[in-house]
TrEMBL record:
It comes from Paenibacillus wynnii. Keywords: Chaperone. This is Dehydrogenase. Pfam families: Nitrate_red_del. The lineage of its organism: Bacteria, Bacillati, Bacillota, Bacilli, Bacillales.
Amino acid sequence: MTLQTVPSLNVPEAFSRWLESRGLIYQLLTDFFGRKPALSLVAQWSRNAQIGVAAEMTEGGRELKRYLCSQEPKELPSICEQENKEYKRLMTEGAMNTFVPREAAHIGRTKEFCNVISDVYASAGIVFNKCNGEADDHIAIELEFMAVLHERMLYNSFSVRSAMELLDIQVAFLEEHLLRWTPQFCHKLNAATNSPLYLGLSHMLEEFLPKDLEMLRGWKATLENGATAVI
């Protein structure tokens, strides 16, 4: 599979499979942390052949694939009913006093901290149309921000320079936001649920984000070295 990206954007083989998969992983995490696991959503991902590619990157991804892809169609309605209840218990703000899926709650900031995050989104030219009134520092919105930046970096940039700028934004957002609070978020989520769906998602998130930052840094260094060699 050839990865179609910005013209002249160098993608060595070592980074190609990761770039093919990371947007899908961010979208999967966004979907399940941001939406109730309705039958249509579960069926969509359990039938998605690309989930196998994404699952290769983390043990949590493999857990999730085994869970989603091993269910008999007749079992899906009852499974979705159970997971919907778990989503409401875990991911709805105020549903649990000990678990809040927002950055501010995990770094000891007030709820108004979401204004800081909204400024980050605005500076990148991104405004979210939030159907369920999620705060800007909600886990699903922060993950969706990364998914949007990934798509723009690879497919909607018009130059290597603009792609590099989007790469830098992603590195900074991982360092300054997501990786500052998701380890604690995942630890609390692991302790709060027995759901195979949310445990798989938590394990996947916990493994994937540090690896994604490592790969972004490595690819950036490769691009910079290539640019230096041309000069």
